Amino acid sequence: MKKFHLNEKRLGYLMILPSIILVVLITLWPVAQSFYNSLFDYRLNDPTRSERMLSANMDLERYVDNYFYIDSQLSNLEGSADGDDIATIQQARETIEGFHSELASDSEINAKMEQIDEMLMNFQPISDSDLKYAKLDNDFAEDYRTALNSISEELQVMAGEADNEDLAQNYEQTSSLIEATSTNILESNFIGFSNYAKYLQDGRMWKSLSNTMIFTIASVAFELVLGLAVALLINRTFSGRGIVRASVLIPWAIPTAVGAMMWGFLLDGQTGVIAHYFNEWNLIPNSSWLLSTSSGGMFSIIFADVWKTTPYMALLLLAGLQTIPNSLYEASDVDGANKFQQFFKITLPLLKSSILVALLFRTLDAFRVFDLIYVLTGGGPANATESISIYAYITLFSQQNFGEGSVLSVIVFLAVALISFIYVRLIGSDLFAGRTK
Amino acid sequence: MNKRAGIGFYIFLIIFVFLVMFPFIWVFLTSIKPVGEIFTSFKWFTTNPTTESYEAAVTNRPLLRYMLNSFVVSTVTTILAVGCAAFASYAVTRLPIKGKGLFLGVILAASMFPQVAVISPIFNIVTELGLRNSYTGLVIPYMTISLPLSIWILSTFFQKIPFELEESAKLDGASPFQTFRKIILPLATPGIFTTAILVFIAAWNEYLFALTINSDDVWRTVPVGISMYQSEYSVPWGDISAATVIVTIPIVILVLIFQRRIVSGLTSGSVKE
């Protein structure tokens, strides 16, 4: 019997393993990465900051290519310059050579440079980022950069003083080549918590956070009240339950983006039938109010969300209602309790855990809202309906700023963690009931 | 509360169903109007219904391709997620292993993770693997949503299967895996099927990952594709309403056939029994 038990255990771990690996790889690891990214000035659209670098780096591909020309251009200048300039140029050349040989004294970097040199000669692109970048000592990188920049400036001055135009142009060219080379030395873009400091003072971040909270609280509150009312009303036997159930499930089942497109049409200021009737009944100031003003926009996204999820809420609460034994109501009838007392003394207390679980999932869903707003209002008008997820998405993918965008992602993550923590404390062990022995 | 339903109740019911269904009704009525009428009047019924919007919806944009993409991605995601989840939920509900509470806690936490918190690293991974604009590139991130969801729902179903059957299988000398395959799996089939429907719907509806990862029009899924019908210059409401009707029909059919199962799946995690 002992052996059998051991096998069972092993089988258990084996069966659970694929799920653990997947969850770690595609959920926990990315969240950690998001946090790590948020500590860098990391932008996909800027070649000097498109990698996360803890120390200074050299873009060897461009450096090797530029260095090849620096040497020949400087000796060229030496031949045509006059007087004191020759000495300055010679010194500049020696400085650069000095730095270059110090760089090449690292055998690994030297080997990389030779390989890159060969590839460049054959016009091969260098796609391997391990080959392309080399780590540098931070002080060396800074010294080399300053040296290159000051040489570039000197040459610029000489260009201004040169008496013939050809010579001036040569100076200019060399100066800009050397300046370009200095940008191949990439500084570390690790900036610690500076991004966080920036966003904690960012008005748009606080605005989007408050938009998200208004949206979450308003939509979840309406959904709960309406959902509970509907659940109480249909908690009885009647014919046609199937039709009601199906009609309630369809808004829940269609993609949010499709629902948002439908509401975009119905609420539109010119062609929208709901905007038209609301205006006729004097519920709104004019028919374009719904989608082109800030309060109208907020109303519209809450309205669309309530339409889509109230039925779902009603279903969850109905299932909870059906577990309350009828005998409780019969007994309280005998005791002379009225409907009101029954609701507050029997229904609500017994429904508490169902309500809390439904609220937990709904609050989190509403707080993460993205597609509804993105499709219906696009965060507009003038960012009045922009949720924190939308702001994060825009920063990440429209501005290609993965460092700052990740800060916003981490803020969403922390807010969601806090909300779940509060709910889980309220619900307690009920959440796991019926899952583990 | 088995009260008898009166006339007033049915009137309420009809109004409720009408309000919930109104957007669909109006969008359907719009989709059969001639395009000119959409922009000029709010009449409910058109006198000369036409299918021109439907023809435009499938020719101006690759709507059928979007549906194929969504179908393939959602099906593959569902099979993989429910497969992994069936093993994990069996282990966690019925086998003597340690750390069950921790595992379920992590799974619940993972199901609560906002997608926007994982999107940029996942985008980097998928780009590095060269999987942008492909089905695999979407199935990978979809697992972040569907796997926790499947484990969460399936574990309630597994828990409900009586333990006596397993005990007697053990006594008859069945190995643990045989017990799983021959006894538990057949009994859990309805639950697995229910879970699969819910996971399929969740994958079908996903927007953020699909928008970011498959940016090429032929690889777009239904939700993203539909939202791209509006251009900067014009909003072709005729095409949009026809496209909406076309993509809603499969879901309506799915819901009509499986409504009981969907409800049982949705409520299994939230109600103590």
From TrEMBL, chain A:
<dbReference type="GO" id="GO:0055085">
    <property type="term" value="P:transmembrane transport"/>
</dbReference>
<keyword id="KW-0812">Transmembrane</keyword>
<feature type="transmembrane region" description="Helical">
    <location>
        <begin position="246"/>
        <end position="267"/>
    </location>
</feature>
<keyword id="KW-1133">Transmembrane helix</keyword>
<keyword id="KW-1003">Cell membrane</keyword>
<protein>
    <submittedName>
        <fullName>Trehalose transport system permease protein SugA</fullName>
    </submittedName>
</protein>
<feature type="transmembrane region" description="Helical">
    <location>
        <begin position="213"/>
        <end position="234"/>
    </location>
</feature>
<dbReference type="Pfam" id="PF00528">
    <property type="entry name" value="BPD_transp_1"/>
</dbReference>
<dbReference type="GO" id="GO:0005886">
    <property type="term" value="C:plasma membrane"/>
</dbReference>
<dbReference type="InterPro" id="IPR000515">
    <property type="entry name" value="MetI-like"/>
</dbReference>
<keyword id="KW-0813">Transport</keyword>
<feature type="transmembrane region" description="Helical">
    <location>
        <begin position="12"/>
        <end position="32"/>
    </location>
</feature>
<feature type="transmembrane region" description="Helical">
    <location>
        <begin position="287"/>
        <end position="307"/>
    </location>
</feature>
<feature type="transmembrane region" description="Helical">
    <location>
        <begin position="406"/>
        <end position="427"/>
    </location>
</feature>
<dbReference type="InterPro" id="IPR035906">
    <property type="entry name" value="MetI-like_sf"/>
</dbReference>
<keyword id="KW-0472">Membrane</keyword>
<feature type="domain" description="ABC transmembrane type-1">
    <location>
        <begin position="209"/>
        <end position="423"/>
    </location>
</feature>
<feature type="transmembrane region" description="Helical">
    <location>
        <begin position="373"/>
        <end position="394"/>
    </location>
</feature>
<comment type="similarity">
    <text>Belongs to the binding-protein-dependent transport system permease family.</text>
</comment>
UniProtKB/TrEMBL annotation, chain B:
<keyword id="KW-1003">Cell membrane</keyword>
<keyword id="KW-0813">Transport</keyword>
<feature type="transmembrane region" description="Helical">
    <location>
        <begin position="71"/>
        <end position="90"/>
    </location>
</feature>
<feature type="domain" description="ABC transmembrane type-1">
    <location>
        <begin position="67"/>
        <end position="258"/>
    </location>
</feature>
<feature type="transmembrane region" description="Helical">
    <location>
        <begin position="183"/>
        <end position="204"/>
    </location>
</feature>
<protein>
    <submittedName>
        <fullName>Trehalose transport system permease protein SugB</fullName>
    </submittedName>
</protein>
<feature type="transmembrane region" description="Helical">
    <location>
        <begin position="135"/>
        <end position="158"/>
    </location>
</feature>
<dbReference type="GO" id="GO:0005886">
    <property type="term" value="C:plasma membrane"/>
</dbReference>
<keyword id="KW-1133">Transmembrane helix</keyword>
<comment type="similarity">
    <text>Belongs to the binding-protein-dependent transport system permease family.</text>
</comment>
<dbReference type="InterPro" id="IPR000515">
    <property type="entry name" value="MetI-like"/>
</dbReference>
<dbReference type="Pfam" id="PF00528">
    <property type="entry name" value="BPD_transp_1"/>
</dbReference>
<dbReference type="GO" id="GO:0055085">
    <property type="term" value="P:transmembrane transport"/>
</dbReference>
<dbReference type="InterPro" id="IPR035906">
    <property type="entry name" value="MetI-like_sf"/>
</dbReference>
<keyword id="KW-0812">Transmembrane</keyword>
<dbReference type="InterPro" id="IPR050901">
    <property type="entry name" value="BP-dep_ABC_trans_perm"/>
</dbReference>
<feature type="transmembrane region" description="Helical">
    <location>
        <begin position="240"/>
        <end position="258"/>
    </location>
</feature>
<feature type="transmembrane region" description="Helical">
    <location>
        <begin position="7"/>
        <end position="29"/>
    </location>
</feature>
<feature type="transmembrane region" description="Helical">
    <location>
        <begin position="102"/>
        <end position="123"/>
    </location>
</feature>
<keyword id="KW-0472">Membrane</keyword>
